[in-house]
Amino acid sequence: MQIALVNPNRYKKPPVIPMAIEYLATHLWESGHEVSVLDLCFSENVENDVRRFFRREKYDIIGITIRNVDTTVYFNNQFFLKEYNEIISIIKKYASSPVILGGQGFSSMPMEILNYLGGDIGVIGPGEGALLKILKDLEQGQVNYRLINGWDYGFEWLPHNRRGELIDYDKYLKNCGILGIELQKGCPRKCAYCLEREKPYWAKNISLCIEELSCLVKKGYNHFHICDSEFNIRYSYCVNFCKRLIKEKLPLKWACYMKLDLFNEDLIKLMSEAKCYLITLNVDTLEDREKNFAVIRKINEYSKKYNIKLAIDFLFGFPGDSLPQVETYIQFFREICPKVVGLNFYIRLFKHLPLTSSILQNEGKNRIVSPDNYETDFFHPTFYNRFHLDCIKRLTCDDPLFRFEGFEKNVNYQRVQAG
Ligand code: B12
Ligand code: SF4
After folding, report:
1. Is the beta carbon of 101 within 6 A of some atom in ligand 2?
2. How far is ligand 1, taken at its centre, from the CA of residue 67, in Å?
3. Cα 313 → chain centroid
4. Atom 7, ligand 2: residue with shortest CA distance
5. What is the CATH number of domain 2-153?
């Protein structure tokens, strides 16, 4: 069948290569389908590009990747679904094939987004197996569903190599983008505020991941972000991945996200030898404070020892948090002095998260706010907030160690590169 895959993500702080499309295209292609890609990230005239693309060919389905709902930070928030809605309306002017939606953003509120964007079918989670099922059902005239769950269709066939020539990497790299690679899917943990919580875990074959990296390095790319929810979900996997990377001696550097457990000095040393240069550590005040401090202190110590930059994304202001408690965290970060600490004290509440229902049950809508007068309906950007910006500013005293999320539009790898 002829499949169109569209990337409507035009946010460029930084631009993100639509790796989902590359993996999906590879899998569809390997399964005997034809795939064309319309990447609108750098389009100067969306309508013209859409018209030209859909005039060239008639497609059996149009798959659209919905990566982000919004920036998920309160200050200078950008709500992307409105723009995606406009793009999909334009697409529908020039093509009448079924529109299939999927992606991380989509999966956060599947039915709501499917209705809002006017899609025909939505896929929750990984799209590889689900898309093949949809194609088969469409061929046999058996589509009697609007949503399917991609996690139900297995992982063993996940592609490790991707048709890089489908996307113009150079435009992304020139605009501070970097390449990504996915090693592991899912996260079994249950952090109440996180969209990635409680997802089946699947680790890709390390040899195949190394092969994927080698291919990209051969093409001249050397800067990567590991696109896993957290790098250290399974300790033995991280160790084996690093060991293989060290053995291959690939000329590259990489950044990753890590959670506050399943690490030790050996792992940080191996990561450094495998050319990891940046760890972003998610820290929240839901965990026990003393336990948090002890673990962060160690990761910070080992990162410094092995020359890896440590960026901390600090999420606070949960129900029950107090200013004196926040102050102890600020003092602690000052004392250990990581490379940078991003402060986020507006907690994005999504419709289907347990944190949202528990806040509504216990406090009602008292502390629920939305930027730009959006409705506080948990579909549009909706946040829980306890602290005023000025109070937190008073605690940080303009110390450049601390960055208030949303004011500078950049991410940790850019902050670290900027020095
Ligand atoms: C790594 C990462 C980053 C890196 C990316 C580096 C790089 N060069 O790729 C950096 C740090 C740059 C980044 C930036 C941002 N990120 Co980010 N990021 C991630 C993370 C951890 C992995 C994304 C990824 O690439 N996964 C691997 C790919 C292969 O998986 P995938 O995209 O999900 O695709 C699969 C499925 O979703 C599905 N699928 C996808 N598209 C489609 C389409 C169809 C038709 C179908 C059927 C299926 C399908 O199939 C795919 C293959 O299995 C995710 C969380 C997560 N675990 O996914 C957050 C995440 C996507 N990011 C998020 C956000 C908010 C951002 C920022 C807006 C942050 C900010 N304020 O600046 C920016 C946006 C930048 C941009 N231009 O879009 C949010 C989105 C939340 C939301 N609902 O809106 C997430 C979910 C994190 C979170 N829990 O809040 N990010
Ligand atoms: S915050 Fe990290 S560890 Fe917790 S559920 Fe999300 S991805 Fe998993």
Report:
1. no
2. 5
3. 14
4. 229
5. 3.40.50.280
Residues 6 or more apart in contact with residue 288 via CB below 8 angstroms:
none
Find the radius of gyration of the CA atoms of the chain: 22
Instruction: Answer whether 317's CB lies under 8 Å from 284's CB.
Output: no
Ligand 2 atom having least distance to the Cα of 190: 5
Candidate from 227, 229, 313, 382 with most ligand 1 atoms within 8 A of CB, to mutate: 227
* Exposed / middle / buried, residue 72 (Cβ in 10 Å: 0-12, 13-18, 19+): buried
| C-beta 189 within 6 A of ligand 2 | yes
| CB 301 near ligand 2, within 6 Å | no
Of the listed ligands, the closest to the CA of 315 is: 2
Indicate the domain borders of the chain.
2-153, 178-345+386-417
pLDDT tens-digit series, residues 354-408: 999 999 999 999 999 999 889 999 999 999 999 999 999 999 999 999 999 999 8
Same fold, 2-153 and 178-345+386-417: no
Ligand 2 atom nearest 233 alpha carbon = 3
* Interval 8-48: pLDDT, tens: 999 999 999 999 999 999 999 989 999 999 999 999 999 99
Ligand 1 pocket residue status of 71, Cβ below 6 Å: yes
pLDDT above 70 (res 159):
no
Tell whether ligand 1 has an atom less than 6 A from the beta carbon of residue 311. Answer: no
pLDDT of residue 157: 64
Judged by its nearest atom, the ligand closest to the C-alpha of residue 185 is 1
pLDDT at 164 over 90: no
CATH number among 3.30.460.80, 3.90.1150.10, 3.20.20.70, 3.40.50.150, domain 178-345+386-417 = 3.20.20.70
